[in-house]
Design a protein that fits this description.
The complex is a heterodimer of chains A (156) and B (257).
Chain A: H1 2-29, E1 40-47, E2 58-61, E3 64-75, E4 80-88, E5 99-104, E6 111-116, E7 129-130, E8 132-134, H2 139-155
Parallel strand pairs in A: 1-7, 2-6, 5-8
Antiparallel strand pairs in A: 1-4, 2-3, 3-4, 5-6
Chain B: H1 2-39, H2 41-51, H3 56-78, H4 87-125, H5 128-134, H6 139-177, H7 182-192, H8 195-221, H9 227-256
The chains are: A alpha/beta (156), B mainly alpha (257).
Chain lengths: 156, 257
């Protein structure tokens, strides 16, 4: 009798430890969505180049995540990338002339959209489009420019 | 020449027959599973204890050191690109998706699989299984199914514990020993590891648990009932499980990408 009790206690502890490990893995190692909102509104922005921006990338304002990219598509008429993202409806007072730029978190980090507040009295709402955008910085282009500049500098 | 062809024919046929019997045996185990789960759950609990709880020590110690090695190797290689901070997500990816399920399955085959195969083989060699049949007790459902289920249940937990302890090992080496920033370590990990990655690891460990337990039970049940036969069944359990786990790991990874 005592032995089966010990077995049951041991099994219970083992399963609890296993569940604890699963819980730890799912909550502590994944950042997952630090963005969750009950009400959202969709905003669109057009970029010349989105770099490696993907759906589910964060949208941040002053470093605070306020939204998430829902889709990145290519407009064959305007020949631009169209990025749609949703913003938490709590932040409904973002000036509609705000400026969106694609930034990189850290030197090898993932890319996200950074919003810079404008000065308009009108606010972004569902379906509005951000007019002022700044493309992602592509490292190769940057190095190319740098090489051209330093080359011409030598001649003078 | 004629003999050679005939031998090859028979060997191939025997191989295919064994393979087919192996699959049918799996169905047989499954067909007994619901009844055992309902009526004799205490037997399953005991086997979860034997396969799972008793494997904890080897799993945790191995996990700690595997994680530590990931920390050392990852650091020395990532430091070349000044990317030591990425060590967190590097280790988490490696542990959760690959090393956790695979090494746990290999250790499981060595620790629990051999125990299952030799126990069942010895029961067969000492005619305990025949005695059960004489008493109208079906040895498949009374002996094999609980052992199979015990392994299947224990394996995902073991793999999760392995990954968790491994991450602590990496943390210990990278943060405490090599002074990688603790915030960067966890944040880089949380930014890149997705819930899908965890699910892939869990899925793999379930598949490997079924494989390892099934092979161990099969080998034990089909052991030649002699001392030598039981020994051979034990060896074959480890060898076949190792190969099957690594092949399946490749296939699953290829499908999941």
């Amino acid at each position: 009798m005592r032995q089966t009790r010990a077995v049951e206690v041991g099994t219970g502890l083992f399963v609890l430890l296993g569940l604890g490990a699963l819980f730890f893995l799912t909550t502590q190692t994944t950042g997952g969505d630090d963005f969750s909102a009950d009400e959202i509104y969709t905003v669109e922005a057009r970029f010349e180049n989105v770099g490696s921006l993907r759906a589910r990338a964060p949208v941040a304002m002053s470093g605070v995540t306020i939204g998430r990219v829902t889709s990145v598509t290519f407009d064959t008429v305007a020949l631009e990338a169209v990025v749609e993202f949703v913003v938490d409806a709590r932040y409904d007072q973002i000036p509609d002339d705000s400026d969106a730029s694609i930034l990189t978190a850290g030197i090898l980090g993932s890319q996200y959209i950074g919003l810079q507040a404008g000065g308009s009295d009108l606010y972004l709402e569902d379906g509005s489009e951000i007019l002022f955008t700044q493309s992602a910085i592509v490292l190769e282009n940057l190095i190319g420019k740098f090489l051209v500049n330093s080359g011409s500098g030598d001649k003078e | 020449m004629k003999h050679l062809i005939r031998d090859m024919y028979h060997t191939t046929l025997e191989f295919v027959r064994t393979f087919g019997a192996f699959q049918l045996f799996f169905l047989r185990l499954l067909s007994h599973t619901p009844r055992i789960l309902v009526t004799r759950f205490d037997l399953v609990v005991k086997q979860v204890f034997n396969s799972g709880a008793l494997s904890l020590v080897i799993i945790m110690i191995s996990g700690l050191f595997v994680g530590g090695v990931l920390g050392l190797q990852g650091y020395s290689n990532l430091a070349r690109f000044n990317a030591e901070d990425s060590i967190g997500f590097f280790a988490a990816f490696a542990l959760v998706k690959e090393l956790g399920p695979v090494i746990t399955a290999l250790l499981f085959a060595g620790r629990a699989g051999t125990a299952l195969a030799s126990e069942i083989g010895l029961m067969k060699a000492t005619d305990q299984l025949s005695a059960m049949e004489m008493m109208a007790v079906n040895p498949v459902s009374r002996v094999l199914v609980p052992r199979f289920l015990g392994g299947v249940i224990a394996m995902p937990f073991l793999a999760a514990i392995f990954s968790m302890v491994g991450l602590f090992g990496t943390h210990l080496v990278a943060v405490e020993l090599l002074s990688v920033d603790v915030g960067a370590f966890w944040q880089q990990m949380q930014m890149t590891v997705d819930i899908d990655d965890i699910n892939e690891g869990i899925f793999k460990s379930i598949v490997f648990g079924v494989l390892a337990s099934h092979i161990a039970v099969w080998e034990g049940y089909n052991a030649i009932p002699t001392a030598e036969g039981v020994g051979r069944a034990t060896t074959r359990t480890v060898v076949i499980t190792a190969i099957a786990v690594l092949v399946f790991d490749f296939v699953i990874t290829a499908f999941m990408l």
